[in-house]
Amino acid sequence: MRRALIICLLVLLAFGCNPGLGTINVHIELDFPDMGGRRPRAHQTVYLLSNSIASAEMDEAFKKYMASTSPSGHFGNGNLTDTEKRSRVGFMSNDAGTTIWHRYIVKTVETDSQGEARFTSEGG
To answer: Distance between alpha carbon 18 and the CA centroid of its chain, in Å?
Structure first.
């Protein structure tokens, strides 16, 4: 479940949006096949960045992270598998990645009970 959420956030982060362009609507769902399908992800923080997670700085840090013998630091909520820790998702949720991408946060929003949120150029 956490992996799907992180992947959803990374998709948004990867596009590196410009908040001066207007409005960005977000809808986050998780798929629970054994419980009837998709459900909205309520009260989830979503980040809008001024730089792509695929920037040269991030790629260089990711290469160093992957070259290390074992990932060090804290992994967000700690629910990642060993395989997930050794991936871009692990890097982004690890202290090594968050130290970099948190510098590029322009805005944050929280999804409502229906898994929806909106970034606007007016500040929401």
So the answer is: 17
